[in-house]
Amino acid sequence: MMLLNITPSGNDLQRKMLLNHSSSIRNLFIVLLLLIPFAIFIGDYYSKKSGGDSMNQDLLKNVAKIIVNGDESVSQGTAFLVCNSDGTASGYLFTARHVIDGTNSEHVTLTFPKILKEDETPLTTTASIVWASNVPFDGADLQTLRYDVGLLKLDDISVLPDDVVGFFLGSEMNIKDPIAIYGFPKSHEYANSGEISSTEYSGEKDLMLLSCELEHGLSGSPVYREESGEVLGIAIASEEQTNIINIALKMSRVIELLDRDGKKDLIK
Questions:
Q1: pLDDT above 90 covers what percent of the chain?
Q2: How far apart are CA 62 and CA 80, in angstroms?
Q3: Do 112 and 61 contact (CB within 8 A), yes or no?
Q4: Tens of pLDDT, residues 196-234
Q5: What's the domain range around 41?
Q6: Are residues 137 and 30 in the same domain?
Q7: Residue 94 has what pLDDT?
Q8: Are residues 41 and 66 in the same domain?
Q9: Which of 37, 127, 157, 162 is buried most, with the most CB atoms less than 10 Å from its CB?
Q10: Could you report the per-residue pLDDT of 13-66, keeping only the tens digit for each?
């Protein structure tokens, strides 16, 4: 009786091992290809959230987190420094009025997370409320949002480093203008880019619609146009239960309100 030799030869074993190895490499390569877009998305997302490039870091020095102590609660928002027409620090900051509505004092606490002191801790100082519009805030009422602005002044401007002077103010804008939002929602720094989706909101010409999402805590943030280096408006993060989202009060309206109340000369 003849027995068949079915034991694989050395060549066959090597061939199988090579095929298995090639298959594993191919599968790994496919997985890596699938992960690349995801990795790019995550990197871009966190770069925007944290103000990843040097330009964002510099601009964030002009932005402060406001802590407002009220009778029954503590609220948080954003304020931004503005400079004089000659490019020097004015010591004034704009914010949204509803951020400071609940205060029980004429002063608010400001923290500049991107201005570090010698001990590497963020600069914390105070500012006085020097002006605010006289219409109470209602996040569901467009008419009250047209007045959602307040002006602060540093109690001691000397605390600012020489390289921190604030933003220039502008008013001319067009649909599709590229803009960026700088602020401090939920205690982390934020720099996100987008564009002006509309130069009015629901027929209201004092408000503009933005393409980027405004998280809570971003109320009072500057709407900054990269091309001209100017702030065009003040972000308003309206209440979640309303359909009014991603809007900003135009700087032209802010100047109009200051002029109406005889405060325009404060911003030279």
A1: 53
A2: 6
A3: yes
A4: 999 999 999 999 999 988 888 899 999 999 889 999 999
A5: 13-49
A6: no
A7: 98
A8: no
A9: 127
A10: 555 555 565 666 666 656 556 655 544 444 444 444 444 443 467 899 999 999
Per-residue tokens: 115: 């201005």
CA distances (Å), origin 260, targets 132, 150, 215: 12, 14, 31
75, 45: one domain: no
Indicate whether 94 and 217 sit together in one domain: yes
What are 94-114's pLDDT values in tens digits? 999 999 987 778 889 999 999
**Assigned domain for 257 exists:** yes
Q: Whole-angstrom Cα distance, residue 261 to residue 268? A: 15
Same domain, 134 and 253: yes
How many domains does one find in the chain? 2
Could you tell me if 107 and 28 lie in one domain?
Answer: no
Residue 156 and residue 26 in one domain = no
